Structures are given as C-alpha cells and as structure tokens.
Amino acid sequence: MRLENTNAKNENSTSVSTNSRSLGDGLTGNMTLVVGVATVVAIFMILLVCLLVMLIKGKKKDKRLQDMFRLELPTDPSTVKSAPISRNPSPKREKRLSCPSEYGAITNAMSGRRTSTFDSLPGYEAEHVQPPMCDVTGKPHFQYQTYFYGSHPQLAVRDASTASSSQSITPPPVPSLHGRVWFTALHDQAANRLIVTLIKVKELRGRAEEEPSRDPFVRVFLLPEEQTYHTTRIHKKTLNPIFNETFAFNVDTHSLVARSLRFSVYDVDRRRIRHTLGHVVVSLEDIDLKSSAIVCRDLEPGMLAAPSIGEVCLALTYLPNLERMKLVVLQARNTRLSSDPEAGFFIRIHVHYGKKLLKIKQTLVQGVGPEVHFNESFSFCTSNKSIDNFNFVLTLFQTAHASKEPEIEIGHVTLGSFMYARGDGLLHWQEMTSKTRQLITRWHQMNGPSC
C-alpha cells in the first residue's frame, strides 16, 4: 500500500516536471521571436534615419552650389556682353565701313556687316566675285556681278569693256516649252542591233501649282513597228528624271534608212492613269550611228506623223443569236507601189483564240495600184467560246511575177480586245461588241513588218 503511494507520487512529480519544462521551452521561443522582430524594426528605422539625413545634406549642398554659381541676367539687352558682371559693358561705337559713302560704297542689306570693296577705291584693283558653278555654260561673268552692283552702275564700268569679248561665247539654249530628251544611238553591224541609250529628260512641265512635280517614264519605239517597244522605270516626283538606260532593237543595216526612233514621255498620276507629255521622232538618217554622239531633241506635244506604209479598210459585225462573227476586207490604199507591173497584193488572215491559232484564210491576189479593192467577207463561228478571246491579225503581202520568189510583207493590222490590240484595232472591236447586228466599218493604219 505504501509502495503504491510512493509510485503515484513519483509519477505526479514526473508529469509536473515535464509540464514545467514544456512551458519553459514555449516562453523561450516566444522571446526569441520578439527579439528578432525588434531587431528588424530597429535596423529599418536606422536605415530610414540615415536616408533622411543624406537627403537633407544633399539639398543643402545643391542650394549652396546654386548660390555659388548663380548669375543675374540683365534686363537691358544692350548690356548683354561676354564680359563678367563685375566689369562695365563696353561702349557701343559706330563700326567703320571699309568703303566710305563718298566713293560709292554699296550698303549691305543686313545691318551691322561690312560692305564689299570694288574698284571705286583709288589705287586698288577691283575684286570680282566668282559666280557659282552651274550646268549652264556660256554665261558672261558680268551678268553675275549685276546682283552685287545693284543700283551703282559706275562699279560695272570695268566689266562693260570686257562685254565685247564675252559675246563670242555661245548663249545657253532656249528653255523648251514641253521638255527635252538626251539620248545616244549606235548600230552594231556585226550583231545587226541598234543600241539606244536614254540619258535624261529635262524641263518637263508640272501638273499644277499645288503639285508641280510628276512621275514620268519613257517608251522607246523603232518605227514604223509600234508593237515592239522598251519602257523605262518610273521616276517619282521630278521634272528632270535621269534614266541612263540602254535598249537594243534587232535591225539590219539595209533597213536603217526607213526606220525612225520615237521617244514618248508619259506621266502616271495618283490614280495610276497615264498622261502623254510629248513625243520625239528622229529619223535614223539624221543620226551618226557610228560615233554614239549625244543627241538632244525637244518634246512635241502632238504626235508627229511617221512615214505611212498604207491603210486598209475593214468591216466587223457580231451576231450573238447565230453565234457568228463576220469580217469584211474592203480595200487598201496608200501602199508602197512595186516597180514590177505584174506584181499583186493579197491579205492573209490569222484567226487566234487566245494564243492558239485556229484558222488561216486569205483574199484573192489583186493588181498593184494606188487603191486595191478586195471586197471579200469571212465568217467565223463563236459557239462555246468567249468573244473577248478572239483576235485577228491581217497581213498585207506583195507577190512577184515569178512564182519562186518569196512573198514580201508590207504591213499588218491587229483586231481584238484590250488583251491583244491597241489603238484603232481595239476601238473597232469594242464598237462591234457594243453595237451587235450592225456592220462597223473603219480605216486602219498598218504597222510595219515584224522584225
């Protein structure tokens, strides 16, 4: 009994000591946490105080520097000089001119600057102002000095004596009204090629005062063939484009006499519409094709007529209900007459659908004369086909008396939509499609034979 009581007492004392020990550990942990938080707060406060002290010292230092280097700006503009404030401003004196008024000095337009000295002062030679370099040659130097002499003609007496010697210099060319084209042409006999270099175009007329510039480009043709041409690149916002582009045409030496070069200058507006500015037509007979010399020609607003090789009268009609199209070859005129009295003319017709050749037909051979009458009609079926893809190429040939001699091509005409024809050939086709069941007749200028 006594032993059980003793064991119970020991167990109670052990539990009490365990509870007291756990309580002490909890208090120690709480004290450590409090000390850590207090330390962090103290460090933060110290850093904040140091930062405030540094800011206050910096402001005082900046204020001290501003006070040290502060300058008081004077309100009187006449006293603003480069000298320090401690010194008095220099007195304002009149500037002495290098050429007094009694000798005819020239007053400068800008006040406070000294005037130039010329030959008015005794004992000194005249000082001539050299004119700026310019691309216009042959301008006498006394014309430039009139800008400096102004209303003092006595200063130009010395230059007036040299005016007679300056008259020998050729004056600059008169400005063109519509523009001017510079180019070179050289014929390569070995390769049978005509090499044309378009150098530049200058002095084009602007569109309007609000938009004086243009976007020009040039097309180069070798007449009488107008189907083959070369086009330059477009130059933006300029009236004096410089191209320096070279093109080549296949042409032999014997046919150079009958050929001409045409330069057509165009402008492209904001709506991508092309406007004609002018043309230059130069016969190859008038050009030295061996030296490649630079040729300059003025633009003409109207188209100069090229040597005509003949005209042909054609009639077209379209019958949509029958799905047929009719072509009538009426006559030809102003053709080149052959010296052979037994020679004849005929027209060969190539019918194309797109780029595919469908048919070839031709008229009967007619005798040579100023006007050749054919009066033949040809009908073509258009079923299951688009009429806009049809196009006709009519070629005028000359035959000789001897059957073994080859046929000579005189010229040709192309009829079709905008994809295949241009000019009168396109207009004739469009009128036929707009006025169906009507016979539309029109004269066509023939193009030269293809190279």
Automatic annotation (TrEMBL):
<keyword id="KW-0472">Membrane</keyword>
<dbReference type="GO" id="GO:0070382">
    <property type="term" value="C:exocytic vesicle"/>
</dbReference>
<keyword id="KW-1133">Transmembrane helix</keyword>
<feature type="domain" description="C2">
    <location>
        <begin position="177"/>
        <end position="297"/>
    </location>
</feature>
<feature type="compositionally biased region" description="Polar residues">
    <location>
        <begin position="76"/>
        <end position="89"/>
    </location>
</feature>
<dbReference type="GO" id="GO:0000149">
    <property type="term" value="F:SNARE binding"/>
</dbReference>
<dbReference type="InterPro" id="IPR035892">
    <property type="entry name" value="C2_domain_sf"/>
</dbReference>
<dbReference type="GO" id="GO:0005544">
    <property type="term" value="F:calcium-dependent phospholipid binding"/>
</dbReference>
<feature type="transmembrane region" description="Helical">
    <location>
        <begin position="33"/>
        <end position="56"/>
    </location>
</feature>
<dbReference type="GO" id="GO:0001786">
    <property type="term" value="F:phosphatidylserine binding"/>
</dbReference>
<keyword id="KW-0812">Transmembrane</keyword>
<feature type="region of interest" description="Disordered">
    <location>
        <begin position="76"/>
        <end position="98"/>
    </location>
</feature>
<dbReference type="InterPro" id="IPR000008">
    <property type="entry name" value="C2_dom"/>
</dbReference>
<protein>
    <recommendedName>
        <fullName>C2 domain-containing protein</fullName>
    </recommendedName>
</protein>
<dbReference type="GO" id="GO:0017156">
    <property type="term" value="P:calcium-ion regulated exocytosis"/>
</dbReference>
<dbReference type="GO" id="GO:0005886">
    <property type="term" value="C:plasma membrane"/>
</dbReference>
<dbReference type="GO" id="GO:0030276">
    <property type="term" value="F:clathrin binding"/>
</dbReference>
<dbReference type="GO" id="GO:0005509">
    <property type="term" value="F:calcium ion binding"/>
</dbReference>
<dbReference type="Pfam" id="PF00168">
    <property type="entry name" value="C2"/>
</dbReference>
<feature type="region of interest" description="Disordered">
    <location>
        <begin position="1"/>
        <end position="22"/>
    </location>
</feature>
